[in-house]
Amino acid sequence: MACKSIRGSAMDFDNIYLDLKTLFLTMMMFKWGIFCTATPDMCLSAPCQNGATCVDTKDDYACICVNEGVRYMGKNCDQLYDACSFAPCEDCISTPGMPEYHCSCPDGLSGNNCTEEVDECQSNPCSEPYSLCVDQLNGYFCRCPAGYGGPACHRRVNDCIHKPCVNNGTCILRPQGFRCQCIAGYDGKICEEDINECLSEPCQNGAICIDGVAEFHCFCVPGFQGYNCEIDINECASRPCANNATCINEKDHYTCECLVGFTGVNCDSEIDECESNPCQNGAMCHDLIGLYSCECPRGFEGIHCEADIDECASEPCSNGASCRDRVNSYECDCSDTGFEGDHCEVDVAECVSHPCQHGATCLEGVKQYTCLCWPGYTGTNCEMDIDECAEHPCEHDGECYERSKLTHWELDWELSYASVAGYICHCSSGFAGENCTVNIDECDSEPCQNGATCHDQDNSFACTCPVGFSGFLCEVNIDECESQPCQNGGWCEDDTASYICHCPEAKVGHLPWGGNDCSVKLYGCFHHECQNGATCSPWFDGVGHGHTCLCSPGFYDEQCSTQTTFSFSSPGFIPVAVPQKKIQMVENGNGFGFAIELRFQTTLPDMLIIYRGDVDNFILLEIVNGSFQAKAFSDGSEKKMTFPAFVSDGDWRDVHVFENNKGLRLTLKGHGCNKDGCQAQDESPFQTLESLLHVYVGGAPEEMLQNSRSEKNFIGCMEDLIIDSEAVLPQTFQENQGQYFGCSKTEWCKPDPCYGRGRCVDLWTSYHCDCHRPFYSESCREELQSWTYGHEDSWSYSSYKIGRSHGRNFQVSFFLRSLKLEGLIFQLRTPSGEVYFSVYLNMGRLLISSLPNGAPLTAPIFLASGEKHFLLVEIQQRQVVFEHASLRYSVGAIPEVVINEGDQAYLGGLPEDWDSKPWGGHYKGCLQDVRLDSVHLELDVWSNDDEEEMYSSSGAENVKRGCISDDTCKMNPCQNGGECTVTFNDFTCSCPKEYTGVTCETRVWCVSDPCLDGSQCVDLSDGYECLHNATFDNSPAQFSSGGSLTEPVSSIYMELRTRSDNAVLLRASRDSDQLMIGLLDSIVWVEIHVANRAETVTFTGERKVADGRWHRVNVSMTTRDQNASPWMITVDGIIDASSLPQITGSLHFLNDKGVLLTLAESFTGCLSAVRVGGVFLPFVDVYDTPQLSQFHLFGKQIINLGCSSAPVCNSNPCLNGATCNDIFNKFYCECDSGWEGEQCDTDTDDCVSQPCFNGKCKDYFAGFECLCHPGYAGPLCEVDMDECEHHICEHDATCKDGTNMYTCICPKGYSGPLCQWDYPPLQCRKDVLCANDGICNDGLWGANCTCMPGFKGKRCEMEIDECDSNPCRHGGSCLDRFNMFVCECPPGYSGSICDINQQTREQEVSWLVVLVPLLSFCILIFIPAFVFLIQTTRTKRQSEGAYSPSSEELAGARLAMDRMLKVPPEERLI
Question: pTM to 2 decimals?
Answer without folding.
Answer: 0.47
